[in-house]
Amino acid sequence: xxxxxxxxxxxxxxxxxxxxxHSQAFQSPLLTCKTTKDSNELASRELFTLGAPVMAHxxxxxxxxxxxxxxxxxxxxxxxxE
Length: 82
What we know:
By secondary structure, this protein is mainly alpha-helical. 41% of the residues lie in helices and 9% in strands. The chain has 3 helices and 2 strands. It has helices spanning 9-26, 40-49, 70-75, and strands at 55-57, 65-68. It has a two-stranded antiparallel ribbon with strand order 1-2. Strand 1 and strand 2 form a beta hairpin. The radius of gyration is 12 Å and the shape is globular. The two termini are 13 Å apart. The relative contact order is 0.17. The model has no long low-confidence stretch (mean pLDDT 89).
């Protein structure tokens, strides 16, 4: 497994969606970086290392977590693969 799974292209696309959804819901950016095409990796790094837990789920009636940052992993004492 890649040492930095939160930097994989699929995860970077998901991070972009999370950031966009947050901005729409709260009329405020979650991160300080710009999420242009050239900065998807920067946004993924910044979200993963953010001090506050961030989670996203798939929206099903029995939701599955599809993203969790490092603060969330530490809080719930889990690894990325779990």
